[in-house]
Amino acid sequence: MTIGLDDLEALVQRALAEGARAAEVLVIRGSGWSIDLKPRNSPRERVTERDELYVRVWVDGGRVGRMRGRWADGHDLVGQALAATFESPESPYAGPMASIGGLQSGLGTYDRRYPNLELDDRFEVIADAERQARSAGSPFVPSGFQYEDEQLWRGLVNSRGLALEESATRYRLDGGVKGEGLALREHIETRSFSSIASLPIGTNLVRRGTELLEAGRTLDPGPVRVVLPPLPMSRIVGMLGEHFHPDRLTSDAFFLSPSEGDVPVLSEQLHVVDDGSRPGALRTRMFDDRGVPPVPLTLIREGRIDARFLDPETARRLDTRPTGHCWGDDLGPSNLLMRSGTRSLNALLTEIGGPSLQVDDIDPAGIDIRTGAFDMVVDGRVLEANIPVGAMRRVRLHGNLRDLLTNIVDVGNDTDRIGHVDAAGIIADGLFLG
Question: What is the pLDDT of residue 140?
Fold first, then answer.
């Protein structure tokens, strides 16, 4: 069933007719394909569907009721949202948004090739990646390759005159290799089919694995200088970006929150921007889930917390504008951009000299976001200056993320876009082996 903004407007009017003083309706609908390619099993493909409806209604006193469900249940959800207002506190800042301008077009979020793609085109992408991971002479075997794509439509209408819509596409390719005690994974997420079809994920996995099998020198337990390429740095920056919610920045739930007059100061080389309007990026969109165009924010300015995400209610209370970071009923980052340096990691390591551990990847689950404690098992290459001289597998790397981000020796110009994060590689002290 195809729906449009007129259908959303009709649902808003129904809410007003049933007693709401204001109402807002957001619909996200999409369809796509998912293909699984597992060893010794035939490929499995299936059509995916997305059907999400968010209803918000406001009554006297700013009491709000929220419900989420499917489009077919819209009328019932309006009634349930109105019933929910009886348990909601009053607020002078509640209500839907009026237009505040700034809407953009030409953001590169819709791939015009999508309607013409055949199932064979999709199969070829995942099959080619899996073939790369089976390179001749490699000790690794492919593990769990999966392809997904989706085209979706978002529409938002409210009782203050907003009527917004946009279309977008998304592609994801995920895969791994196993062998010699290693299990590596990598994924690509992008807006265009040409990008996902041209990036050699299987070749990258084999290269990473082969480098980690190099025999030679190891490092002794104790303080260690680490080299974090864009992949592990994207995990760290992505995790940090999730916590620029105003509530988390004023509580002990985030290790970078100020406390007792202590304002965390990290390395001045750390600079992170959130930009929800970056052309072609994964989380670029014309408007957030409350109808607000995204505002570029500098989250970390030369080592200091500089901004936070604001929903419409908090923004009204502070007499400023919301930032466009609402996702459903929560706040979160859009595209995160880490400022890069001016020289490559290779050139920096040549100049700095000495031993270091180049970490292949990290698991953010090994970081306690409340305290910053960093404790995980990693694989990595041992470097002497910029020369690989050995490898270490399944070694414990621990310390505190705040110490790591305070003791950045340098930031390279080696960058990569991994999901919604544009990350640069760094060289840093502050962690320990063993």
Answer: 93
Complete DSSP assignment for 403-424: HHHHSEEEEEEEEEEETTEEEE
| Displacement of CA 57 from its chain's centroid (Å) | 30
Q: Say which residues have a Cβ less than 8 Å from residue 264's Cβ, sequence separation at least 6.
A: 255, 256, 257, 258, 304, 305, 402
The beta strand positions in 126-276, using DSSP E, are: 141-158, 163-179, 182-190, 222-228, 272-274
Q: What are 175-220's pLDDT values in tens digits?
A: 999 999 999 999 999 999 999 999 999 999 999 999 999 989 999 9
Stated pTM of the model: 0.94
The per-residue pLDDT for range 232-256, each reduced to its tens digit, is 999 999 999 999 988 888 778 899 8
Q: How far apart are CA 243 and CA 250, in angstroms?
A: 11
CA distance 316 to 298: 21
Q: Following CA atoms 328, 187, 424, 184 in sequence, which dihedral angle do they give, to the nearest 10 degrees? A: 130
Q: Which of 276, 114, 128 is nearest to 199 (CA)?
A: 128
CB atoms within 10 A of CB 411: 25
